[in-house]
Amino acid sequence: MKKINYLGFLSLLSLISILGWKSGNTGLYGFFGFIYFLRYFWMIPDEMFLLNVQKSATIAFMLSMVSLVPLMFSCSVFYNISAAIPMAFALSFVVSTLAFTFVLTGLEWRERRGAKE
């Protein structure tokens, strides 16, 4: 019996970009980047993979929490306060998502390189 790699379900978030196309909201096009996680449906999750996901998620969460306050202050400089708070939360989400993706990719790359040597 094949185990399902639940990380692949993050690729479903890319469907939000279709809403951006239909509604004309170009800010939703960024969700198309989640199509990258489609590749995980074909990857069997082993213990090392789950450990790499845990490490990546921990780093992304901590970076999100640490970046939120500076982003709120910097967004309040450029926007009025009613627009600065949602913008800071959105940027914090982007920072954590990019951090998760890049750290997980780096850990997988390091694991593959170590397997070749």
**Helical content band:** 55-70%
Percent in strands: under 5%
Order of helices and strands: HHH
**Helical element count?**
3
Q: What gross morphology would you assign?
A: flat
Low-pLDDT segments, ≥5 res: none
Indicate how many domains the architecture comprises.
2
Output the structural class: mainly alpha
Number of strands: 0
Question: Biggest β-sheet: count, sense, barrel?
Answer: none
Radius of gyration: 17 Å
Indicate the mean pLDDT: 91
Distance between the termini: 31 Å
What would your notes on this structure say?
The chain has 117 residues and is an all-alpha fold. The protein contains 3 helices and no strands. It has 2 domains: 1-44, no CATH class; 46-117. It is 65% helix and 0% strand. The two termini are 31 Å apart. The mean pLDDT is 91.
Keywords for this entry:
117 residues, 65% helix, 2 domains, flat, 0% strand
In short:
The chain is mostly helical. It has 2 domains: 1-44, no CATH class; 46-117.
